[in-house]
Design goal:
mainly alpha, 2 domains, 7 helices, 62% helix
Length: 136
């Protein structure tokens, strides 16, 4: 029965839904060639590397804003899935020790994480900003 409903709703000459409904609902292209993986990766990398807005990609690459945003989201999701086990995890003890040694060599013993620069005197900071950033 499910098969018959699917056929009646989408594939018969007098179907309930249009070809556009089918494409939009199921994210399947119907009769239109899509963008190549090279185009999609190029757009995603350009948007990330240069901060290019998605609507600019239409002018330079012929890809709509919504497709660019979808592509960027898929690209980022894929990178996270591929690399999360190695790079997006807490360090093990050996890696933590290495990070602590590196921080100590740079003058920050016992430091893991970001620096709080609000308490530093900034010799070359513009004088108008020094009060707000010196922490005093």
């Amino acid at each position: 029965m499910s098969h018959a409903n699917l056929m009646n709703n989408y594939f018969n000459p007098n179907s309930v839904y249009t070809e556009e409904d089918f494409r939009r609902r199921l994210r399947i292209r119907t009769g239109r060639p899509g963008f190549s993986p090279h185009q999609k990766v190029t757009v995603a990398l350009r948007m990330m590397a240069y901060g290019s807005p998605a609507d600019l990609m239409d002018e330079t690459h012929g890809i709509s804003e919504s497709t660019c945003l979808d592509t960027l989201q898929q690209f980022c999701d894929t990178i996270v899935q591929v690399h999360k086990d190695e790079y997006l995890r807490e360090p093990n003890q050996e890696e933590l020790n290495q990070l602590l040694r590196k921080a100590e060599d740079r003058g920050f013993p016992g430091m893991i994480g970001s620096l709080d620069c609000m308490h530093w005197d900034w010799k070359n900071c513009p004088t108008g900003w020094q009060e707000g950033f010196s922490g005093r």
